[in-house]
Task: structure prediction
Amino acid sequence: MRIGVFICHCGSNIAGTVDCESVVEIAAGFPEVVYATDSMYTCSEPGQEGIITAIHEHNLDGVVVASCSPRMHEPTFRRAVERAGLNRYMFEMANIREHVSWIGKDKAHNTNKAADLVLMAVEKLRRNRPLVAKSFTTVKKVLVIGGGVAGIQAALDCADGGLDVVMVEREQSIGGKMAKLDKTFPTIDCSSCVLGPKMVDIAQHEKISLYACSEVESVSGYVGNFSVTIRRKATYVDWTTCTGCGLCTEKCPSKRSPDPFNEFLGTTTAINIPFPQAIPKKAAINPDTCMKLQKGKCGICAKVCPVGCIDYEQQDELVTVEVGAIVVATGYDLFDWHKYPQYGEGRYPDVITSLQYERLLSASGPTGGHIKRPSDGKEPKNVVFIQCVGSRDRSVDRPYCSGFCCMYTAKQAILTKDHIPDSQSFVFYMDIRAPGKGYDEFTRRAMEEYGAQYVRGRVAMIYPHGDQLIVRGADTLAGTQVEVPADLVVLATGVEASQGAVKLGETLRVVPDQFGFFVESHPKLKPVETNTAGVYLAGACQGPKDIPTSVGQGSAAAAKALGLLSKEQLESDPAVSKVNVNRCVGCQKCIDTCPFGAIKAVTDRMGRLKAEVIETVCQGCGICTVTCPQGAIQLEHFTDNQILAEVNALCPPKMNNVSFE
Amino acid sequence: MAKIAYYPGCSGQSTSVEYDLSTRAVCRELGLELVDLEDWSCCGSTPAHTVNHVLSAALSARNLALTEQLGMDLVTTPCPSCLSNLRTAAHKMEDADFRAKANALLDTPCTKQVTAQSVLQVIMEQVDPELIRAKVVKPLTGLKLACYYGCIMNRPPALMQFDNHEHPMVMDNLMTMLGAEVVPYPLKVECCGASFGVPRVDIVTKLAGKLLDAGRELDVDAFVTACPLCQMNLDMRQGQINSALQEKFRIPVFYYTQLLGYALGIDRKELGLKKLCVNPKPVFNKLKETAQAS
Result:
């Protein structure tokens, strides 16, 4: 074999703490290395050209690049060696940046370690063999999980791009958090007026099928060919015939059903349509409060329904769909502010969350858009807003900034003045974070034009006094304690990951971070991709996001799905497991252990049981290779011999007479 | 009978002698045997720890060492301020360097882990609530009470490790158990002004005045406290508060042990009711009226 070694300086990233010239000298003496050199930026165009020229001039048949992590540039260099006519698997990468130069300061030690890593790569490359990818067809259909604004945008963009879309929404209607908002910052345009038409588009688009009141139960398969099981929860209403006329909701006698759409500010009927613009506009029965389902008595809705669509016997239903790509847009939940004892832990009805306040402001809300406080229905004059409730606070394990609370608080202060001209708003804040377009100007308007009084400090206590609440806090700019009498207190509750995120992540093989937000493939360059091919992220499931950013991500995820499925065929990674049928004894342990269901049992000509790898399903994790008692399964490109060669390069065996070859 | 080491604290010998008296009577009645620490010393109170943490810890650690010499690992005190010092000392002594410094000041070093708990915690955790209910002979039915815990009884929460630090409930629950109606008093853990009563009485009249005002708004018959300093600021200084704020408060302020003792039928002399500054007679008249009416 004729191997070429290329040591990258990465500017000063590597050369700053590694003597690259010395590594070149050492590498030149490694087995079968016929050429070694260094370059400033190997990934740059001249850098890649250098590799190609060297392959031709020195007749190389294998290349080692020592530079950054393979997660960064392995595809880049594989393409480069391929352009020079080599098989892309005749290439190895030694990570001397993340694993060496960035983590150690001692130049001599770093140089040694870099040389060791290069030797490992050379020893592995000597045992590499050309591999050829297989190709497979894809299903031109996308699953969008979550019908908030991010999911809606992703679904519409995919459908407009020609893909079939299946949207799964847990709640009775799509629209997500945005459907609950009254107005949106910084333009004060009506939230349901902007979102409503998009929701209607979802319902009417011929390429979109919507499963509301449904959840993803399980996912199997792989990029281009996922098989998804959806649980359609019983609504006790036949949605194929329900016209959404609402007669049943008018007549339902069980009027004390909790109303999640109105953030539990009011109550609703046991059979209900959550809000006028709901999509799909279909009724559903809450089985916990329906008298017919609880006690067997009532049945009024069935009697009044003009189309006879009520079905008290309805059961959950499982539906399986085949899709090529998945967009996760499961959104966020609100922080449980009861963790702060100083805000009353729910003892005071006039301490509410910001989302509850949106429902009080909204014309479709429980008060018809008139601000009435929950305790006595009185119109508040002094409204106190408390920011960062569950944001930027390590004591409640929420060290991150929720990002958009400063903006919606300013918006709510403005709207308060609009609704009640003789009102006064007070905002307790830590810092104003308003980095978006037109955002800072907006917060200034709240203060200067709408007279909201901003107090920089935390609130230590809320206590009742007469029919008011006294809000006591620090004014850190004035260096004093302040007490504000409030008729209503609105808590800017922070963002946390959606409750079911971790479980869904396990189903999709998408990793949540320590707070439950899904981790993107690269924080800067792959913001909507995940480490599972074909699964993309949109909106607040990846981290707190406002509406414009969520919509942007929805479109970005759609673009990725469209790009993926625009190819007629996809290439599978040939670095998959392979069974040596001569050694396989048919014990089937590998079948049990494979997390992807990528191994099946077959019988050979002699009628003997053998394992067989389904190459397109295998993800190359290698679990089967360590499970096999016979050593009959080897992972291509990572065979035992290749890995042992790397180990031996690092720790040469002491006994001369023992060979691991 | 459960034996527990008892640390009365300086105020129990002077300004809050009725707290000490009633505590002993109530514990006896509930089957808790208090064993007095012999030759105990002041916990250092506020002056010691404002000047020197080692000295402050040593003063309290001396009393922990005395508990240790009794062969006990739990000491109880009625006073939240003493408790705070005892627990702080025990916590700081967990650090070996600090322990060496503090022990250098003591004749007998403190070596073992001794836990300090309030009498309230001991009663609530070691006495069966059913026993208390069964022993009530004069229920507090008809009495409207505000339970005032003060600012240090449960705080800092990591150190005190008892009840909710923003919204404590144990005294509320105890008084409810005795038959009283307990109002949702919003200023349970507010500061009364504490020892500012000496140098800056205006601070105490302002803060304690607010506490009384909140009680009056809820139409309470009396306050219930567990802290000698809180009780003193609300009770003894009620006249000062009235003249400073042009008010006419006349709200009796009890120690919880006094009302508990009353309900358990303990002789009134043992409860030191005469020591209270605001005359509690209207409260007992009301109780009698209610008892007769039923």
The longest strand of chain B covers residues 2-6.
